[in-house]
Amino acid sequence: MPSRVLVLGSRGFLGRHVVAALRDDEAFEPVRHVRISDGPADDGAFALDLALATSDDVQQLIDAAEPDAVINCVGRTGGTPPELHAINVALVETLLDALGNRQSVRLVHLGSAAEYGDTGNGIAVPETAVPRPASRYGSTKLAASLLVQTAARMGRVSGVVLRVFNPVGAHAPAAGLPGRLAAELRAAPRLGDGTVNVGSLAAHRDFIDARDVATAALAATGDPSASGAIFNVGRGEAVMCRDLAAMLVEASGRNITLVEDGEQSSRSAAVSWQQADITAITGRFSWRPSHSLEDAVGRLWAAAADASVAVAR
Hints:
CATH class of the domain at 5-170 and 207-236 and 273-291: Alpha Beta
Structural class: alpha/beta
Strand content: 15-25%
Distance between the termini: 46 Å
Largest sheet: 7 strands, parallel
CATH superfamily of the domain at 5-170 and 207-236 and 273-291: NAD(P)-binding Rossmann-like Domain
């Protein structure tokens, strides 16, 4: 019997890819999803502002959707401490309260590699590493992941956490390096030579196609025996940000020179290297990253270029 999945944060970067993956997989029923912003429901979406939702609101939502699994793609990367806590932590608490003791409903929570902080150069970090987040964002994501893990280990929910490394793909937000570079390249002159000023691109990150993150989330809806576990989701390869930027320039087809004359971001300065050890997830689920980084960058640029055309019309 096909599974019914409820996606929270379906209008976000990763949420869009999860919804698309669900619609392409015959093992799942037509997806039900919830957007985090106000506005009318569309295409199977429930009209609920998750940022303001109470436990009763979410419980009613779950009763109406009758899901076999809930995939939480909601997250906020920037903002004030109260804003970060409200979306990254308080909403997860609300969700766990709403799920109650529904062991039949699988919870897949998308965490972040930012929870690890500095793991040392040249090291593929396993899930057993002690998290030392270097940012307020990482701290709030860690708090949420621990809430899910604790609730699962106590038997309150059937849930797993996916620590997502650096996703790349269509609609990547400007809050991250790939999305920010795409936006800057889109704004650069179309003809002739040009330069784009950026900060240092010397850091290494484990970049992964957002579509692979989506299929990992789908895979994690199965195997109830994995409840309480945390799994890294990456390609298992550290790539210099400078190399990713070069791929994006090539994909844009523009004669642009990137000038690294700015200061390194505080995030890159604090964490110069991140690489996922993906042994656990590839061994537990029938999942492995299947898309190349070049393909992910190409899709990122295609979406950015399409957005540029739409704005110009």
